[in-house]
Write a structure and sequence with these properties.
The complex is a heterodimer of chains A (196) and B (252). With 196 residues, chain A is of the alpha/beta class. Chain A has 6 helices and 13 strands. A 7-stranded mixed β-sheet of chain A has the order 2-1-3-4-13-12-11. In chain A, strands 6-5-7-10 form a 4-stranded mixed β-sheet, with helices on one face. Chain B is an alpha/beta fold and 252 residues long. The longest helix of chain B is centred in the N-terminal third of the chain and has 15 residues, at 58-72. The chains are: A alpha/beta (196), B alpha/beta (252). Chains A and B meet through helix 1, strand 8, strand 9 and helix 6 of A and helix 2 of B.
Chain lengths: 196, 252
Amino acid sequence: MSLVIVKYNAGNIQSVLYALERIGVKAVVTDDHARIREADKVIFPGVGEASSAMKYLQARGLDEVLRSLTQPVLGICLGMQLMCSSSEENDTTCLGIFEERVKKFTPPAGSALKVPQIGWNNIYDLKSPLFNAVPENSYCYFVHGYYAALGEHTIATTDYVQPYSSGLSKNNFSGVQFHPEKSAKIGEQILRNFCK
Amino acid sequence: MLTKRIIPCLDIKDGRTVKGTNFVDLRDAGDPVELGALYAQQGADELVFLDITATVEKRKTLSELVNKISHHINIPFTVGGGISSVDDVRVLLQNGADKISVNTAAYKNPQLVQDLEKEFGSQCVVLAIDTRQEDDGEWYVYLNGGRVKTETKCLDWAKKAVDLGAGEILLTSMNHDGTKQGFALDITRTLATQLSVPVIASGGGGAMEHFVDVFENAKADAALAASIFHFKEIGIEPLKEYLKEKNINIRI
């Protein structure tokens, strides 16, 4: 099994590589189109800002490569958001793999909720083999100020300000908003499920 | 629901942990990686590694250590201690740190916070503030590990830093640090309720009730402690069980 991690101008890519190493999976970090297309599985990670990430991907033709992939693809955090149709983060048009839109968390006036959401929160209504052996309401680690709305592709739900998609899936594409690479044993199980 | 976080802090000197040497169940209690992994396994929600090395080789030993930590630990971690430039931060993040904390350098050069936010995003910029309540009742910012007093009030600096792009505040009360008499509830509450970013309370946690107080009364988002964990006065697992019993939202 060959696994590729897409290299672009986002942070946290090394952490994903190390997390895979911890579960005994070898991966290659690359932005080479051919290597990405040929891989058995692709992880599209990332922490960063949507518009600059999209510009970077477009400038290198990686947006087209990602859209055209037919093997299993897992987006993580910003990676998942970039797979949606658009993001309110600097009004960015994204890859459009999922129809869901990415919006900014706007807690009601007087709310004690802070933005970005930083920390451990539950995932529930789990509807994907990605969550095999992951109990409902498991805790995962989140760091984000924008969220994907609930939609027909939602495979995991989390509550913050309102219920939103903490996981999305359509055809060969899946994405998670949280960081499996930083979500202790539960995160490792999710990565294992993807790599299986 | 988003949980409150329990964060053990490890002091590092020359790549070794300074405290916590009575962990008999560890092969090498001075190894920050092994101690950090143990805390992660016990249910710590994050870790903070505070480097107090003062030598010229500091940068290299620290980035090597961070690389080792990120290979072995499956929860988020923050690295702090003497970080003063965008380049310092880039090396640490590239080696796998999730967040970095800045203190004195950010106070002396607030532009640093803005530069870090622009370059890496606010989610990885933790502003650490050491503060002391003086006889006039006000909380002042201290620098250089608490050795240098400033005339700036804690809330003013915290607000400014958040405007500049700090994504979290790590607040240490010098009046409470090391006393084990409980966290500084009033200043923690002031910051936690007035700032739009999470506040990590530090200094004074000595009993399980103190953690209930800092979360419930002071509205802290996270609580950090060092020696009570290192010297096993309080275990992370029993602490989290206790907090859950007290209806604090916590990850078990």
